[in-house]
TrEMBL record:
Catalysed reactions, as listed in the record: L-glutamyl-tRNA(Gln) + L-glutamine + ATP + H2O = L-glutaminyl-tRNA(Gln) + L-glutamate + ADP + phosphate + H(+)
PANTHER family: GLUTAMYL-TRNA(GLN) AMIDOTRANSFERASE SUBUNIT A, TRANSAMIDASE
Family the entry assigns: Belongs to the amidase family. GatA subfamily.
Protein's recorded name: Glutamyl-tRNA(Gln) amidotransferase subunit A
Residues annotated as domain Amidase: 1-438
Function text: Allows the formation of correctly charged Gln-tRNA(Gln) through the transamidation of misacylated Glu-tRNA(Gln) in organisms which lack glutaminyl-tRNA synthetase. The reaction takes place in the presence of glutamine and ATP through an activated gamma-phospho-Glu-tRNA(Gln).
EC number annotated for this UniProt entry: 6.3.5.7
Any Pfam family hit: Amidase
Catalytic-site annotation from UniProt: K52, S127, S151
Signal sequence range: none
């Protein structure tokens, strides 16, 4: 743990993966593990890790990269933290992210910009950009992120690492600062597929504090991971290789398809016809949920209160105007509009219908196929500052990750090659609660 902390202090001035390092807490936790003894059957015992800063850590600052929560210290642990602590992992700090997880480059953090360790002039992706960069740079063994529309998988892709968004309900959201409650899931970011399965083993499972968490039994995700893909049926949706996808990315995915064929799987083209409506539907639904979830930041109950406020109305208005960044305000306005009486049918209701159609698309494909293969993102990591002034370009980046959240499916991004020295990510999407098949196929490819 000491070495890990020294290494982070030496490397993080370039990368900026961390918002706050918990040196005392980490050393104390490590000493406790020393005292208790490493558990021989527990591979996570004593392993240093980092946690996205929208996951509550008892007594240690959790900011969601927002001025609104700059000095917020939670008084309880998120369920995933309780589970990790029980496994004796060592949390060394909290990682940078887009404010309230809204963004795809970590440039929306109120505090700092994280740099991609493969090329410091590039973004690490987002919103879990700090978690992904910390793993890719070798600062820690694993990190947790959250994924509402791609925020684990896209940064994993940009950093050449493995990131899994579990099935909706597989991992408790208790203690995750809510963005879009029907979409959010916490998941692991790691250097390889096996490590990822170990971490999911630790954090998955039912939680009475989260009524959307499933009571389905949690399998051992490492158990059949080495079984190979012989006989597996993999679908390649044509919409995921269409216009707007970089040629190098396309080539890498087609090459992966060939690899799977050589390994004994069948790969066939399919169609997910409603893919093109996903981004539009998502930004209405996610923003609507966000506008509701973020009402609690009112200057009274949590976090920032404007020192200028002279009456109740000003406490609300000034605290929120000063505490939230531009992207968060954009989402609150879009969401509030979509939920307003005059717009509800035309926008929210319509988006909800599109969501149902997309779920049906996936259901149809999964009648015949075990997995869906495609790119995680249309390009590799872009330059810092390149897209930030153009929200729509930024939103389109998520075209292939968003459908997975809308349908509540599990999906993993893993490295599939390079373009101009930057990692390309490929995505494997599975049936609900079938993370095991994703891991098996990921392990076979790696
Ligand atoms: N980039 C998407 C957004 O800005 C996804 C974010 C996420 O998954 N948290 O909403």
């Amino acid at each position: 743990t000491k070495q890990t902390l020294d290494n982070i202090k030496a490397s993080d001035s370039d990368i900026n993966a961390f918002i706050n390092l918990d040196e005392d807490g980490a050393i104390k936790a490590a000493q406790a593990v020393d005292q208790a003894g490493i558990e021989p059957d527990n591979v996570l015992s004593g392993i240093p890790s980092a946690i996205k800063d929208n996951i509550l850590t008892n007594g240690f600052k959790t900011t969601a990269a927002s001025k609104m929560l700059e000095n917020f210290k939670p008084i309880f642990d998120a369920t995933v933290m309780k589970k990790l602590n029980a496994k004796q992992t060592i949390t060394v700090g909290k990682t940078n992210m887009d404010e309230f997880a809204m963004g795809g480059s970590t440039e929306n953090s109120a505090f700092k910009k994280t740099h991609n360790p493969w090329n410091l002039s590039k973004v690490p992706g987002g919103s879990s950009g700090g978690s992904a960069a910390a793993v890719a740079a070798g600062q820690i063994i694993f990190a947790l992120g959250s994924d509402t529309g791609g925020s684990i998988r896209q940064p994993a892709a940009y950093n050449g690492i493995v990131g899994l968004k579990p099935t909706y309900g597989r991992v408790s959201r208790w203690g995750l600062i809510a963005f879009g409650s029907s979409l959010d899931q916490i998941g692991p970011l790691t250097r390889n597929v096996l490590d990822n399965a170990y971490v999911l083993n630790a954090i998955a499972g039912h939680d009475e504090h989260d009524l959307t968490s499933s009571d389905k039994e949690v399998p051992d995700y490492t158990k059949s991971i080495k079984d190979g893909v012989k006989g597996m049926k993999i679908a390649l949706p044509k919409e995921y290789l269409a216009e707007g996808i970089d040629q190098d990315v396309k080539d890498a995915i087609l090459k992966a398809a060939e690899t799977y064929k050589q390994l004994g799987a069948t790969v066939e083209e399919v169609s997910l016809p409603h893919t093109k409506y996903g981004v539009a539907a998502y930004y209405i639904l996610a923003s609507s949920e966000a506008s509701s979830n973020l009402q609690r930041f009112d200057g009274i109950r949590y976090g920032y209160r404007s020192p200028e406020a002279k009456n109740l109305e000003e406490v609300y208005v000034k605290s929120r105007s000063e505490g939230f960044g531009d992207e968060v305000k954009r989402r609150i306005m879009l969401g509030t509009f979509s939920l307003s009486a005059g717009a509800f049918d035309a926008y929210f209701q319509k988006a909800a219908k599109v969501r149902t159609l997309m779920i049906e698309d996936f259901k149809k494909v999964f009648q015949d196929y075990d997995l869906i293969l495609g790119p995680t993102a249309p390009t590799t990591a872009f330059g810092i500052g390149e897209d930030i002034s153009d929200p729509v370009t930024m939103y389109l980046n998520d075209a292939m990750t968003i459908p997975v959240n809308l349908a509540g499916l599990p999906a993993m991004s893993l490295p599939a090659g390079f373009s101009d020295g930057m990692p390309i990510g490929m995505q494997l999407i599975g049936r609900p609660f079938d993370e095991s098949t994703i891991y098996k196929a990921g392990y076979a490819f790696e």
